[in-house]
């Protein structure tokens, strides 16, 4: 049996940008579009050219790029009531976007036509037909039937009539939208099947556009594909209004790896899903969803001792797919629940796994620190140092004596914020005392620490801070609660995470900074008292 | 047609606690169990009495509580190989937990029996049968068939044989587990149906236990119910290992509000789902998942201008259910995409909606601040003050002149961390200068601010900080990036959110603190120069 191609239509840049806390710059949009084209997404909906300047600029810029087979779509609504399509500013903006595809959205649900648009049912049908006809002269037209499933449930004949108006006017795709996200898979399957039969005389293909309000968007999209839809609309990571659009990552992975008889994207695209997911999170400045299916940081993370034990024997025992198929990786977590198996897995890297007494000590210390708010799951560098400390193989490269930060606003005409740090360290027998300014107190502390050590350890020059995260551990007590700071650092070879916990955010940050620098110095095998003879040090 | 009752089995306290970053104290577990019983959950799996002291203590404590019809379950594995059930420490621990129900987990998948347990297929069947028989003398036994669906796909006869061993030995429920979360709804439906037919001679009912590794856990659970399962296992908010267990919130809401022919929980329980969800997040110290179906903060949040316009006409146009049915609420968000509709909705509270020029000014300022990293979605108090400022109705109750914080560690035998803040304010014509210590710099600043103002504005005494959150807005630049601080404050009547953004975490916190206090003073209608005559002020 031949595989049936299912086309992927991404609307991260348009419907996704409706998500709470999501805001893309023009450059963000261009970067995401280029990535989407690289993985072979078939359609990219770039924006709503009537709504803002940024989207207009996007369409101007994206025309200059070679996106291969990927088609860019401009999105807009049917013409306004009592106006010719050609005279409508929305229609004109869609044409002016000069995209190979225009996606036209119209009303399917009789209630929406009469109560929201305030037009007769007939005029709504005319608005759809005339808009599609006008746009089809310029580009391929995908017709998005808003509220299709709710509309069909309310008035099936009318819902089909609106589709026929678009199809007869030259639209080539009918995209059926579960706009409110409230439908069940069995409803999606039955209505999609009925719709395909009703449009048998029209030369159109069917798309599906689901939202996740009932946590069924992936199942609904797959149900529509099984019923005959050949295009799936959604967003990367499922970002979007309310509970989001369907997550295309899950749709693609399920179609490619689980369902039988379909092809999707092409080439090596699957292996780039994890990278694509994280790129979109970072660009949108959203936190990764650790538990995200297939690509989440926790998707192949193993914590329970029993599971870790089994994973070491055979990965498929607790993994539904090989994480590498989607570019993800297996992680063994450190936690009080994990028992000896996890500690052994990490300790094996230090060749310590046969020392039972040492393993017990490490486990006890992990439990003690976890009770204080530490979590080593994203702080493997701190965990590595912890193991070294307990094993007695840790050799400190410097001894913090004290630090102090001062921050405030200067009392001048225009308020100026400042932050300064002073630190005192000992390297070998030499005392160092230095200070630095920064944008904020943690940045000042970081600068002071590295400035002070750089002469002794020049390898610190290629180290940089990548991310800084703060979490209130017990949020019940407001600003007096414990603060957990995670710092991610990197050099040209790798990135590493460290952690600090304290009631004082400065102290928590300081601990994470010190660990980060120590980790770097350990991995570079720096001698504990520095590269510079002590007598040459200038304090 | 009579409705068929579907029982809800919660394993938040056991399988949920395997989730990354999840760690419950004994008290947490007791509090969650009591809440679960209050909403009428049928079974609560409390823990694994062999694994740790905390779970043993949980079963001792929970026995003293009246949980109504809710049954507590202790969870454990089949007896070890080459050992009598009665002699196995795991079996003994289960009996010692003295729970009305014991949940026994055993291996279904031939591969797991031979490769992980390292027993023959026959011995695995004996282990299941003998364990169930031993436990059934003490409690009702639910048999959890681990990897049931993967096991069935590999060797269907053997998978059914393991179930029959448990059923013949006295287990009353067969819970079919998609342990690796990799199955599709159509597979779950077909295998569940086949299993029910195969067990027709046994007096057992069927449960379903899904994981979300393919983002299909809700659809899979519903598919099993349609195929005849009458118990659904899962966790609140879907917390759990890897991608989590099925979210019982979505299962319950879909069964009660979407599917036909089933009853679930009872009474007014649905209305408590949002509260329950948030209680579990807070207790587990996890961040809320804003886009969570039904109960998320964004689940009924409307951002797009077009949508907000329609929502104002009729809620069902963009909402699949009435949010109140699950105890949630509608929110109108403020954002650059929202256009005039959203601003009008919020401004209407200030009776400003008819002033077009003012609306334009507010919109422009929101866009400007959003570009700097502000997000007013969780900072409605700051947004209210912003509107007042632009409308000219803001009357500052105090003028910050300067602040300074100092934090560091004292240079004594034992390291002591300290934080101090000094601030200078003007109230009316009076200058105030004061200082305070705190656990950290933000706490010190907060204390100093309120200490300084309390004499003038005694109403501040009933205000408290509830939560403090920090977000790096541009995480690419490490500690030099912009910092967004959100503070949630409250008094006996309400809670409110404020925001501050700066490269300096102290400055960002200061702005959010100042807004929080100003909001409180505005809502209490405090006179701008305080309640105390200026001449009585002591600086």
UniProtKB/TrEMBL annotation, chains A, B:
Residues 6-274 form the Pyruvate carboxyltransferase domain. PROSITE patterns: AIPM_HOMOCIT_SYNTH_1, PYR_CT. Pfam families: HCS_D2, HMGL-like, LeuA_dimer. Its EC number is 2.3.3.21. The keyword Acyltransferase applies. Pathway: Amino-acid biosynthesis; L-isoleucine biosynthesis; 2-oxobutanoate from pyruvate: step 1/3. GO terms for biological process: isoleucine biosynthetic process; L-leucine biosynthetic process. The keyword Flavoprotein does not apply. This is Citramalate synthase. It comes from Stieleria marina. The gene is leuA_2.
């Amino acid at each position: 049996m031949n595989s049936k191609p299912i086309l992927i239509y991404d609307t991260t840049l348009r419907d996704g940008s409706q998500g709470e806390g999501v805001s893309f710059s023009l450059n963000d949009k261009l970067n995401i579009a280029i990535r989407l084209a690289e993985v072979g997404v078939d359609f990219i909906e770039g924006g709503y050219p009537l709504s803002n300047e940024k989207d207009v600029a996007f369409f101007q810029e994206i025309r200059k790029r070679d996106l291969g087979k990927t088609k860019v779509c401009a999105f807009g609504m049917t013409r306004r009531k009592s106006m010719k399509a050609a005279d409508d500013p929305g229609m004109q903006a869609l044409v002016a976007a000069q995209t190979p595809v225009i996606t036209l959205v119209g009303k399917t649900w009789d209630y929406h036509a009469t109560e929201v648009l305030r037009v007769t049912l007939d005029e709504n049908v005319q608005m759809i037909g005339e808009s599609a006809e006008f746009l089809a002269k310029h580009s391929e037209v995908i017709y998005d039937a808003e509220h299709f499933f709710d509309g069909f449930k309310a008035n099936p004949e009318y819902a089909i009539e609106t589709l026929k108006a678009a199809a007869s006017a030259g639209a080539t795709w009918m995209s059926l939208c579960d706009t409110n996200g409230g439908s069940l898979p069995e409803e999606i399957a039955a209505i999609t099947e009925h719709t395909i039969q009703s449009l048998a005389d029209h030369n159109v293909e069917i798309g599906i556009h689901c939202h996740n309000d009932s946590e069924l968007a992936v199942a609904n999209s797959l149900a529509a594909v099984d019923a005959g839809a050949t295009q799936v609309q959604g967003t990367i990571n499922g970002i979007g209004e309310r509970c989001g659009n369907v997550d295309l990552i899950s749709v693609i992975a399920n179609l490619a790896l689980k369902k039988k008889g379909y092809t999707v994207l092409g080439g090596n695209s699957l292996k780039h899903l994890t990278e694509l997911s994280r790129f979109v999170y970072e660009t949108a400045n959203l936190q990764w969803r650790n538990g995200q299916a297939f690509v989440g940081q926790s998707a192949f993370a193993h914590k329970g001792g029993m599971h870790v034990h089994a994973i070491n024997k055979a990965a498929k025992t607790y993994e539904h797919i090989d994480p590498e198929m989607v570019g993800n990786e297996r992680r063994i977590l450190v936690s009080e629940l994990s028992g000896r198996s996890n500690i052994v897995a990490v300790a094996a890297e230090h060749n310590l796994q046969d020392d039972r007494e040492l393993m017990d000590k490490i486990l006890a210390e992990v439990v003690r620190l976890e009770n204080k708010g530490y979590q080593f799951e994203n702080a493997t560098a701190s965990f590595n140092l912890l193991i070294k400390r307990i094993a007695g193989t840790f050799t400190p490269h410097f001894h913090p004596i004290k630090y102090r930060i001062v921050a405030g606003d200067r009392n001048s005409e225009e308020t100026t914020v400042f932050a300064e740090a002073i630190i005192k360290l000992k390297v070998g027998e030499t005392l160092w005392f230095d200070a630095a300014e920064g944008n904020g107190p943690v940045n000042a502390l970081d600068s002071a620490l590295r400035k002070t050590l750089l002469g002794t350890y020049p390898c610190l020059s290629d180290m940089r801070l990548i991310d800084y995260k703060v979490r209130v551990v017990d949020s019940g007590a407001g600003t007096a609660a414990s603060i957990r700071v995670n710092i991610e650092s990197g050099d040209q070879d790798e990135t590493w995470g460290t952690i600090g916990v304290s009631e004082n955010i400065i102290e928590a940050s300081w601990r994470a900074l010190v660990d980060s620098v120590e980790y770097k110095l350990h991995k570079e095998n720096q001698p504990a008292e520095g590269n510079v003879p002590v007598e040459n040090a200038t304090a």
